[in-house]
Amino acid sequence: MGDKAKYIFVTGGVLSSxxxxxxxxxxxxxxxxxxxxxxxxxLDPYINVDPGTxxxxxxxxxxxxxxxxxxxLDLGHYERFTHAELGRDNNFTTGKIYHSVIAKExxxxxxxxxxxxxxxxxDEIKRSIRLAAKGxxxxxxxxxxxxxxxxxxxxxxxxxxFQADVGKDNALYxxxxxxxxxxxxxxxxxxxxxxxxxxxxSIGIQPDILLCRTDRYLSNDIKSKISxxxxxxxDAVVTAKDVECIYEVPLVFHKEGLDNKIVExxxxxxxxxxxxxxxxxxxxxxxxxESVTIAIVGKYVDLTESYKSxxxxxxxxxxxxxxxxxxxxxxxEKIEDETCGEMLANADGVLVPGGFGTRGIEGKxxxxxxxxxxxxxxxxICLGMQIAVIEFARNVAGLAQAxxxxxxxxxxDPVIYLMLEWFDEKTGTQQQxxxxxxxxxxxxxxxxxxxxxxxxxxxKAYGLQDIxxxxxxxxxxxxxxxxxxxxxGLVVSGTSPTGDLVEIIEIKDHPWFVGCQFHPxxxxxxxxxxxxxxxxxxxxxxxxxxxxR
Length: 549
Description:
- There is one protein chain.
- This protein is α/β, with parallel strands linked by helices and about 550 residues long.
- It contains 18 helices and 25 strands.
- The strands form six sheets. The protein has a nine-stranded mixed sheet with strand order 13-12-14-15-25-24-23-20-21, with helices on both faces. It has a seven-stranded parallel sheet with strand order 5-2-6-1-7-10-11, sandwiched between helices. Strands 16-17-22 form a three-stranded mixed sheet, covered by helices on one side.
- The mean pLDDT is about 90.
């Protein structure tokens, strides 16, 4: 195909949470299965420069890429469904776009001209879209928000212009909309879709393909009706049917002929799709013979989108063990010493995820203690690792007031603290933190190397000595307590190559107890489960079987 990329723009109408991110990721998977090189990009209409400081209750998880960018959670979908390597050029917000334009204006790049949404903002958006196109055949661009929202209008105007810039054969529009089934009437209703397309057309965009979110396959009559009123071909009306397993979505789209229609409209010749791996994965998930219950002890339990990558990584680990994983979310604020055993009694494994702030900390410490004492497989991620260190220090090493300086600035035993200086292997420079700087400036973000110690749970899982994992945290293991804790039985199984930073801890004489400072969930894939999640679920399954005897 040469170096000239083609573009697919994905929009959504009627209401939010229809699944544009998942649909975009599934389209990417389908096109990859045909041998095309794919990347994806998310354009978000909110004014925050990035999601890094946004409340997970409002926005869901913050996904971190190798280059240290804090991005929208949809980039997690993109990486799980494709082989795309994503970074800072794959997520732009209104805030990021305006920040760039204003910086140019301050430098005098516009020669004193009046700065306007059109053309300056729209041109910056188009420039940003093109940044993602290097070395790929297809760029799939998801537009956040819902058609009709005022904040997304500059993005929509930019993509309207984009097709004129690159030619109709090089850009197409896919619109995701809702076709609800009304039980009392016994029929599906097309009016929401008609109105959504009308709204899109009013700003100058005619969709080429419609993805109709619904709970059943649409009949040919319904498709013909939508085709007539929305001015698209009948074969371009695609059922986006609800599925039990998200990894079915590429298979449903293929059954509906979506990938065929895309390559036809973009005039691309490709091989036939190879979807055997997806079919095998779905079959393995749906027909698993075993099951385990994992208790996730956190403070964002009311909104599971806060732990999206984590949940999926656990399911990947289950698939690797031919095992269904049942997730039970436990509110750490409700856990106390006397209730912990009752609340975790049915858990085959306990996981404490990452997080910030003091809320629910003691409940998490109780959970780590319960898992350690009762030999229940434990997996601590980021904050979950720090929690495990605090619990061990208090109850095994005899440091009764041990804590993180994040939670207690006056603790006499800050086993976790804000490291102010360390050597950065990525840049080969000495890094410094300052508590008074911007929030992001105190973070260790992105991929960092880690060296594993042989004959440990971590080494057994990876089968490698040198690994790389993604981080998102401020506080670190305090090396002043390292020798003391090791003498009491704590195992430091992974460090930075220089040994300055503790990356993984374990506990001796336990079936499986691992805490890691990084976020392994960001690198787990359905076809390539992360080794730590695979082995955690394996240990949980073994624990369950031992209880049944």
